[in-house]
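Repro case for the chain-ordering regression, as requested:
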Amino acid sequence: MSDLTAGGEMQEETSGTIKKFMFVNRRAPHGTVYALEALEVVLISAAFDQDISMVFLDDGVYELVKGQQTKAIDVKNFSPAYRALDGYDIEKLYVDADSLAARGLTEDNLLVPVEVLSAAQMAELMDQQDVVIGF
Amino acid sequence: MLHIVNKSPFERNALDSCLRFGRDGSAVLLIEDGVYAVTRGNIAESKIKAALGQMKIYALRPDLEARGMQDAVLEGIQLVDYGGFVDLVASHNAVQSWL
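-- result from build under test --
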C-alpha cells in the first residue's frame, strides 16, 4: 500500500466514521504522571470529534476528589481541568462504585458530575467501545 | 528506625511489608500516594489502627492536601510538614524507604 493510498483512506475514515474511544484512568494523581498525561490526551482527542468517554476506577477515582491543594508540593493542580471537559464536549464520565466504596468516598466527594456504575454496567460499556486506552 | 512508604496501599504491598517488618517503637512516615493509607474508609484502615498500638505513624500534610484528603485523616496519625520530615530523619538512627 502506498503512502498516498493510506493517507486517502485515513482521511475518509476520520471524516466519515465516529468511533467510540474510552480512556481508563486507574492511577492516583500527583504521585505519578499518569493522571495528568491521560487528561492531556483526552483534551487533545476532543479535537477529533470522536465519541469519547472517561472511566475512573481503582486509584483513578482519587483524581476526581474535591479540594486538592498542590501549592505545598509545588506541582500543577490539574484537578479543575476535569470541570472544563464539559466545554470540550466530553460529557461521559463514569466512576466505578466499588472503587469509590473501597476508599471511603462517595459521589459527594467528587468535583464534577459523574455517572456511578456497577462493575457489570462498566463491563458492558467497555464491551461497546472501538478503542480502549488505559492509563 | 524510620520507615517511609510512598505507594498507595491499593497499588502495591509496600505498606504491608513495612508493617510486617516494623518493630515496636519504630516510626512510619507516609508520603506521596502513601498518604491514602491513613484516610478513613481506606483498605488499610484496620492495619493502620492495629499498628498504632506499636508504632508512631506520621503523614506528610502537603501530600494529603494535594490529594484533597486532609479532612479524612484517621485519629492518632500525626501530621508533619517538610520541616517535620527532616526532624524525623534526623532523630532516627536509620531510614528505610519502602519504594
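Ordering looks correct now. Residues 41 and 72 of chain B are 9 Å apart (CA to CA).
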